[in-house]
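Input record, target 12 of the design panel.
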């Protein structure tokens, strides 16, 4: 799995088994294709009699032609038909976004590692502004420091409680993290730019601007199952981004990885001309096998050329609560955080470094989609 669930860490989830069978994958991909079709085609005469089937919570659901007309209308508005081919102007102003909703215990204290994530954006992404969206403003010493330096701005946003509706009944999100994931996509559709988790640390962040001059969206490779929503970047008119967000409304599944990982992977194939699938960000370290190399070892994880590093802080179980915790034996984890904390100049980039994943080279989804 490419983003570890707090409740289920193996591949035994029934939805996971369902998706790994070839007939189920074909059905799922066909369903996603229908969403894409709705963003790109107009339903013709006699459309009121047409129906299509999609998957929702492992059940078959009928979509009408009216639904497709709505999809088409929204997609046209979101995608800005008639835009010129690359190079594109990057979104202006170019924002870095974070999304955090108030947890059950009400604690909105900004941690030291959260603070370093923001500083990494300031230093190595260089956005026009940094916006923190949520239903409660962050608190604490580190947040006050960022405010005092005019490095961040808080933007109130209601917590997402439902992915959409079916027959007037809200489809409630299964995890608090899914509420944030949905809001991340909404924020990008509204502002454009980059959205990241607080355990993402930018390194060669300015490359994101270079990529967005050629592509409409960036998503991060996670593992064989799918992509990772820890870092996403996009123009507001990205059809990939719009279809990904629409998937939560139409085929939201109460599975940790389905919408945020698997749907993103399939859509990156269907929209491969506009999407850059970024490697060495959300899989370097990898949560399934390489966290110890990062958190307790040194020299095994090569991070210096990555656009950013998604570190999976809470799974590493190495507490970095203050600058003092960066002292002692050097690990790759500490090395990266010290680079940010001390605002070190990075060495020249390795010009041979490549970080684009071809989603068509990935099995089994690519084979099924292209057959």
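The sequence produced for target 12 reads:
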């Amino acid at each position: 799995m490419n983003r570890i669930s707090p409740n289920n860490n193996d591949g035994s989830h029934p939805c996971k088994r369902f998706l790994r069978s070839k007939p189920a994958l074909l059905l799922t991909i066909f369903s996603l294709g229908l969403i894409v079709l709705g963003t790109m085609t107009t339903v013709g005469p006699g459309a009121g009699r047409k129906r299509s089937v999609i998957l929702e919570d492992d059940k078959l659901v009928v979509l009408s032609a009216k639904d497709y007309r709505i999809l088409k209308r929204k997609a046209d508005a979101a995608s800005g038909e008639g835009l010129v081919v690359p190079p594109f102007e990057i979104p202006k102003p170019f924002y870095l976004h974070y999304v955090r909703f108030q947890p059950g215990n009400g604690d909105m204290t900004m941690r030291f590692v959260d603070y370093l994530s923001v500083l990494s954006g300031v230093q190595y992404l260089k956005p026009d502004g940094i916006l923190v969206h949520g239903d409660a403003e962050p608190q604490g010493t580190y947040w006050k420091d960022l405010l005092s330096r005019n490095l961040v701005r808080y933007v109130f946003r209601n917590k997402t409680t439902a992915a959409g509706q079916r027959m007037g009944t809200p489809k409630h999100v299964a995890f608090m993290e899914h509420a944030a994931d949905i809001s991340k996509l909404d924020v990008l559709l509204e502002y454009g730019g980059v959205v990241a988790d607080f355990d993402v640390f930018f390194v060669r962040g300015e490359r994101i601007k270079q990529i967005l001059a050629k592509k409409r969206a960036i998503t991060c490779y996670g593992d064989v199952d799918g992509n990772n929503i820890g870092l996403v970047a996009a123009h507001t008119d990205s059809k990939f981004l719009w279809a990904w967000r629409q998937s939560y409304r139409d085929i939201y599944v109460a599975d940790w990885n389905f919408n945020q990982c698997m749907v993103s992977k399939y859509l990156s194939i269907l929209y491969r001309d506009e999407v850059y699938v970024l490697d060495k960000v959300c899989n370097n370290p990898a949560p399934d096998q390489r966290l110890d190399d990062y958190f307790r070892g040194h020299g095994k994880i090569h991070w210096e050329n990555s656009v950013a590093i998604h570190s999976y802080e809470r799974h590493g179980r190495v507490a970095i609560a203050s600058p003092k915790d960066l002292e002692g034996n050097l690990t790759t984890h500490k090395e990266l955080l010290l680079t940010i904390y001390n605002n070190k100049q990075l060495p020249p980039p390795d010009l041979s470094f490549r970080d684009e994943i071809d989603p068509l080279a990935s099995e089994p989804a690519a084979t099924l989609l292209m057959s």
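The longest strand covers residues 226-234.
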